[in-house]
Write a structure and sequence with these properties.
single chain, alpha/beta, Rossmann fold, eight-stranded mixed sheet, 32% helix
C-alpha cells in the first residue's frame, strides 16, 4: 500500500486529491497549517500541522512516503482576479525547494504538482483572456510562482509531472479529460478540480508523464 504525502490538502483541489487517494486505498500524510479547521478523518489519513515554508515540517511529511502530490497555490482574499494576494509571493518556489531536498534525503523520486495552463512554454497556447489575467491582474503573481516551482522541478533530477489545468471549476460531474503536451491539442476552457485530481492519480505510475508538463481540460 503506497503512502502519499500531500501538500495543500486543505485547498479545493488538494481536498479532491486527498479524498480520491483514500478512496483508492492509499495511505495519506497531509500537511496543513490549521488542523482545527480540517475535518476529514480516516484510518489511513495522518494529518500533520505545519507549513511547507519550513523545511522541518516538509521533512516530517515526506518521511515514510512513496509519492508526493503538491496542490499549493498563491491565495488571494477572494476569487476576483484583482483581489489582494495574501500568500507569500515566493510560497511555491520555497516550498518546492524544500520538497525536492526532502525527497532526495528520504529516497522519494515521484512528485506531481498542480501548475497552470499558461505557465512556462504553455503561455503561447493560452488565449487572450488568460494572457490578460496573467499580465494585468493579481493572477499573475500565482503564475510567476508556478513557473518558479516548475523550474525547481526541471532541475531536480526527480520523476516529476507538472499538471497545467485550464480554468478550474467546482463541478462534481466527472467528464473525460483532454490532454495536450506542447500544444498538441486545442483545449477547452474549463476542468473540474475533481477531474484534475483523478488525472493526477491515474498518471501516478505513467512513465510517459515523467519529466513532463501536460496541459489538461475537460473534453
Amino acid at each position: 500500500m503506497k503512502t502519499i504525502a500531500v501538500f495543500g490538502g486543505n485547498g479545493r483541489t488538494g481536498l479532491e486529491i486527498l479524498r480520491q487517494a483514500l478512496d483508492k486505498g492509499y495511505k495519506v500524510k497531509a500537511l496543513v497549517r490549521n488542523t482545527a479547521s480540517f475535518n476529514i478523518q480516516h484510518e489511513r489519513l495522518e494529518v500533520l500541522r505545519g507549513t511547507p515554508m519550513k523545511k522541518e515540517d516538509v521533512e516530517m511529511t515526506i518521511k515514510g512516503a512513496d509519492t508526493v502530490f503538491v496542490a499549493l497555490n498563491i491565495a488571494r482574499t477572494a476569487d476576483n482576479p484583482w483581489a489582494k494576494v495574501k500568500s507569500p509571493p515566493d510560497l511555491l518556489k520555497v516550498s518546492m525547494t524544500h520538497i525536492v531536498e526532502s525527497m532526495k534525503k528520504h529516497g522519494v523520486s515521484r512528485v506531481l504538482t498542480v501548475s497552470a495552463w499558461g505557465a512556462g512554454d504553455s503561455y503561447r497556447e493560452a488565449n487572450w483572456m488568460f494572457r490578460f489575467l496573467i499580465n494585468k491582474t493579481n493572477v499573475g503573481v500565482a503564475y510567476k510562482g508556478h513557473e518558479e516551482q516548475e523550474e525547481v522541478l526541471k532541475n531536480s533530477g526527480l520523476n516529476w509531472t507538472a499538471v497545467r489545468p485550464v480554468g478550474l471549476t467546482n463541478s462534481q460531474a466527472s467528464k473525460p479529460t483532454r490532454v495536450s503536451i506542447g500544444g498538441s491539442k486545442k483545449l477547452k476552457m474549463g476542468i473540474s478540480r475533481k477531474d484534475v485530481a483523478r488525472f493526477m492519480l491515474e498518471t501516478l505510475d505513467d512513465k510517459a508523464c515523467f519529466q513532463a508538463a501536460p496541459s489538461i481540460s475537460n473534453d
